[in-house]
Design a protein that fits this description.
By secondary structure, the chain is of the alpha/beta class. The protein has two domains: about 1-30, no CATH class; about 35-220, Rossmann fold. About 30% of the residues lie in helices and about 15% in strands. The chain has nine helices and seven strands. The chain has helices at about 1-5, 25-30, 55-60, 75-85, 95-100, 120-125, 130-140, 165-170, 200-210, and strands spanning about 70-75, 110-115, 145, 150-155, 175-180, 185-195, 215-220. The strands form two sheets. It has a five-stranded parallel sheet, sandwiched between helices. A two-stranded antiparallel ribbon has the order 4-5. Strand 6, helix 9 and strand 7 form a beta-alpha-beta unit. Helix 5 crosses helix 7 (about 130-140). The longest helix is centred in the middle third of the chain and has 13 residues, at about 130-140. The chain is globular, with a radius of gyration of 18 Å. It starts with a helix and ends with a strand.
Length: about 220
């Protein structure tokens, strides 16, 4: 009904939006979103050049504090467009259908769900934490408890875009602290996109130091080098 009065175009194909659930993306474009099924690291999920190895070089050299990272697809095409609409155009209703994509990943049973946090300043600027809204949906799907303040970002950091793996890691050092009861708990950490994995590594390290028994990471997409 709203689309009849305020018609919108699908940002992917330009056709009229015909979906009340995941507008402005149309049914056809949304249906084209597919999971990544290629070779990937069994720990961090980074796409690999071939299926001959099961663990990437970085995880072999420096194993992360999380047990395994899951990502639905590659940060490309319609999935990238949908995430941009959700995150940067503030179309919050996309949180539910986007999180629904994660339902087929075979996520492990956990006690609590946490989300990668924003600083108070960044939260005020954006108006919402995209990872937290996804985390709320993941908690509903898994039956786990959502801990909104399990992690806090206590240091403003420069934008990660354009930084290499090492620079991103240094940029995030000391940026997070644990703010919730995670001791002895198995945790799913939710993020929107995994790029180098520096954020997931730092957040998982903080959760592990606070006593989390095990940490899993789940994201909508993973960038491919």
């Amino acid at each position: 009904m709203l689309n009849g009065f305020f018609p919108s175009e699908c940002p992917r194909c330009g056709k009229p939006s015909d979906s009340p659930r995941h507008a402005p993306l149309c049914y056809e474009c949304w249906g084209a979103i597919s999971p990544y099924n290629g070779p990937s690291c069994g720990i961090c999920g980074e796409p690999l050049a071939s299926g001959h190895g099961s663990v990437c070089g970085e995880c072999l050299a420096d194993r992360p504090a999380f047990s395994k990272a899951y990502a639905y697809g590659l940060f490309d095409g319609t999935l990238k467009e949908a995430i941009h609409c959700y995150k940067f155009a503030s179309i919050r209703r996309l949180a539910a259908p986007l999180a629904g994509l994660l339902g087929g990943l075979g996520l492990p049973a956990v006690d609590v769900v946490a989300a990668v946090p924003l600083t108070k300043k960044r939260l005020l600027e954006r108006g919402f934490n995209q990872s937290m809204l996804l985390g709320r949906e993941v908690a509903r799907m898994t039956g786990a408890k959502l801990l909104p303040h399990a992690l806090l970002k206590v240091k403003d950091t420069p934008a990660q875009a354009g930084l290499g793996r090492k620079e991103r890691s240094l940029n995030l050092r000391g940026a997070f602290m644990c703010g919730g009861p995670v001791s002895g708990q198995t945790v799913i950490l939710v993020d929107d996109v995994i790029t180098t994995g520096a954020t997931a590594r730092e957040c998982s390290k903080v959760l592990a130091k606070a006593g989390a028994r095990e940490v899993y990471v789940v994201a909508l997409a993973r960038t491919k080098k």
